[in-house]
Amino acid sequence: MSSTRPMRAVNKKVVSYNDNLYDEDGDANNVFPKPLPVPDMNDLTKEAKKIRMSLHPSYIIPDEDKLLVKACEIRGCKCSTEACPNVAKKLECPKHCKRGCRNQNFRRNTCVDLVVADAGDKGSGVYALEELKKGRFLCAYFGDLISPDERNRRKELYKDEGLPHDYTFQAGSFFIDPTKRGNIAKYANHSCIPNMVAITYKLDGHHKNLMVIGYFAARNIGIGEELTVAYNFDYDPENSQICLCGATSCKGFMGKGPKKEDMVAEIPVRVPSKKTGVIGRVRNTKNVFKKQQVPKQANQPSVEALENDENNADVARNGENEQIVVQHVDHLDQEEELREQIAILGPERRTRSYTNDVMKKLK
């Protein structure tokens, strides 16, 4: 008697993510909170992998500027290590290189098994569907290859259109713009501790000043792990983007960061003690941008008020016993002001040492 129970397909690809197993349709014993590949993302992944470099009319190659790369002539070389002179010089081997040449990733549009999926607050992200060894070529960064003038025109156009993201990266003397037509690499998010590294290569038959971008594994990457790269574009204070990588050493923003001339070297600030809440010694805070004011501590009198008010005592930190002392006080004329000062500071600031010092002045 044959069973009427439907058989589960067993020929689907199985992937692991967050210690759970999924098949290629996202099914996983029907008990998982969120499958890694969702249907619309699978379609997006397939289309993104097909996209190659598009040569815009602004990308012009004069005959005298065309790069011609020689084929590797080392016997037995697979062009996969720096033993190959082309690999050592970051040159992609020409099409007519020996059989078995592994240094033609850009021409062949090589891409490992990846998928575009939901990355939470970061939007979409790229995830690995196979184990990736350190140093392996993962994918190229493809889009429209444009000139600097076309880049400037598009930058203004995207600003007028209100596009939230600009994916354009510099490629030598040119630019790669995958904003509206790009491959899967454009969905890779930024991280301050990335697991991919971007390496530039020169291509046979292209402009000698063109440097295309390839993503390589910076370390061993596991199945289901998100692929990230460090965005090393120049810092733009008007268009800076907040970093959401979550790394312990996160800089807080994407890109190289502000230049030294855009920063105030040192701003003296009296910082309250974490234990007592008392304003302490002067510390220097760095990496404060121009025109940015240091916020005042909540429920505390400002430093300016303590120093400039003629009716207040001069306050300073004693480095040995960490007590606040009062100087230049005439106890006959300032007795009432001193008592008010103790009350204003509040119970969390009204330490016993402070009160004793004040009362000594009144005796």
UniProtKB/TrEMBL annotation:
Annotated ranges, domain Post-SET: 239-255
Domain SET: 112-232
Keyword Thylakoid among record annotations: no
Main location: nucleus
SUPFAM superfamilies tied to this protein: SET domain (SSF82199)
Cross-referenced InterPro entries: Post-SET_dom (IPR003616), SET2_Histone-Lys_MeTrsfase (IPR050777), SET_dom (IPR001214), SET_dom_sf (IPR046341)
Gene Ontology terms: biological process: methylation
Keyword field contains DNA-binding: no
Protein name per the record: SET domain-containing protein
Domain of life: Eukaryota
Any single Gene Ontology cellular-component annotation: nucleus
GO molecular function: methyltransferase activity
Subcellular location per the Swiss-Prot or TrEMBL entry: Chromosome; Nucleus
Source organism (scientific name): Caenorhabditis remanei
SMART domains reported in the protein's UniProt record: SET
Pfam (any one): SET
Keywords: Chromosome, Methyltransferase, Nucleus, S-adenosyl-L-methionine, Transferase
